[in-house]
Amino acid sequence: MERISTGPYHTTYKVGDIRVTSLRDGYVDMPTGRLRQPGDRTFGGDLPAQVSLVDGALRLSVNAFAIDDGHEITLIDTGSSNAWHPTMGFLPQALSEAKIAVDRIRSVAFTHTHLDHIHGLILPDGRDGFPQLARLLVPRPELDMFRSEARLSRFHDRAQPLDPGQRLSASIEAIATPGHEIGHTCFRVTSRGETLLVWGDLVHVPSLQFDRPEVAWEFDGDQEQARASRLQILALAADNAYCVAGAHLDSPGVGRISRTETGFRFEPL
């Protein structure tokens, strides 16, 4: 992968013949008590020293990713718009900075249906974020969850089910990674022998969960399954020299994975 442009809200990479742009929707600060050890135990005062804090809180980047194959752009996740914290909702600024015209985004696919991934379908002023949207893909087990979001009612009937193994295009394939949510999905992007895994919420706190992948997150729907999916994808990336792109890895959230004696290491690209 090669970085070809960057700014405060975006970084664009070349993956074979494809352009992948990390889009910074913003960040959210979370209490350290969200981290969970096996058995749903909190860390208490034992949080490892390498975990960086901002005013005592964990700062999580919120990233979406645009995949441009030269014909159309597929957007993976949409950020939160004005549905959550005011430190988020900067996806439109990121798209503008990256010189990505919203009219070219005709497909949107969700890794899962938590609010910081789906509400960017609608701008704060109520207009559609992507006026030419032709395909909206939601993990099949989460369709009812998506359709329960009243603010997104205009999109309920437009949502199509997304299944593991489904190809969104010649270069994008869905991979099941349940645990954080029942239908949580990763996307394998491949072009000319290069591969990038866009993996949603497999890792929330990169300063800890690569070295200790057994650590879970309070909002994981099934912590044990989330651990298993994290280990599966970390091993897949490390053993095949894939790059990865994470929704909550420090912006721009793109890098490589390698194994260590006790876990894994993330190296930003």
UniProtKB/TrEMBL annotation:
Domain of life, source organism: Bacteria
Metallo-beta-lactamase domain residues: 61-248
Keywords: Hydrolase, Metal-binding, Zinc
Keyword Transmembrane appears in the UniProt entry: no
CDD domains, alphabetized: OPHC2-like_MBL-fold
Pfam families for this protein: Lactamase_B
UniProt cross-references to InterPro entries, sorted A to Z: MBL_superfamily_lactonases, Metallo-B-lactamas, RibonucZ/Hydroxyglut_hydro
UniProt keyword Metal-binding, yes or no: yes
Coiled-coil residues: none
PANTHER family, per the entry: QUORUM-QUENCHING LACTONASE YTNP-RELATED, QUORUM-QUENCHING LACTONASE YTNP-RELATED-RELATED
Family label: Belongs to the metallo-beta-lactamase superfamily.
Protein name (record): MBL fold metallo-hydrolase
Annotated organism of origin: Mesorhizobium captivum
Lineage of origin: Bacteria, Pseudomonadati, Pseudomonadota, Alphaproteobacteria, Hyphomicrobiales
